[in-house]
Design goal:
7-stranded antiparallel β-sheet, 24% helix, alpha+beta, Alpha-D-Glucose-1,6-Bisphosphate, Chain A, domain 4
Length: 155
């Protein structure tokens, strides 16, 4: 079977280290990891080390949707690689790679327009998806999640 992948990029006004750490701190993670309207976070367990596991219990209409995986690579502040498994992947492992590239000569300013802020290009790849439906669902979810991360960093 032909495996499929997706790629999403988002420029976020924050430095790479702060963005990277937001993926590994359960309290912060719970604030911004929102994959769409009506979806909440019931609980998050993170063991942030290579071989460490995570469990994200999302909630939708009173139903718990577990998302789990294992960290493969934690290279702060450059790259995170982990497995990702959920009902939406038919409970099969997929591979997610997130890179954080701090951009030079950014013209981004804080809300008061007084201090130049760092800007980071966050690139998310997900591999081993089975079909176009999984790509579409995950593209929507990850895009919403990166938008939420951007909004959380901006607040």
């Amino acid at each position: 079977m032909d495996r499929k992948s997706l790629k999403i990029e988002k420029k976020i006004n924050a430095d790479a280290t702060k963005l990277f750490r937001a993926w590994l701190n359960p309290n912060d993670f719970s604030c911004w990891f929102l994959s769409g309207d009506g979806i909440g976070i019931e609980s998050v367990t993170i063991d942030p080390k290579p071989g460490g596991k995570f469990l994200i219990n999302m909630s939708l209409d009173g139903k718990i949707l577990p998302h789990e995986g294992e960290y493969i690579t934690i290279d702060e502040p450059n790259k995170l690689v982990f497995t990702w498994r959920s009902e939406a992947t038919e409970n099969r492992d997929t591979i997610v790679t997130i890179t954080f590239e701090e951009l030079e000569n950014s013209n981004s300013f804080d809300k008061k327009n007084t201090n130049k802020k760092s800007q980071t290009l966050v690139t998310l790849y997900q591999e081993e998806l089975l079909n176009d439906i999984q790509i579409k669902m995950h593209h929507h979810g990850w895009t919403s999640i990166l938008d939420s991360l951007n909004d959380w960093m901006d607040s």
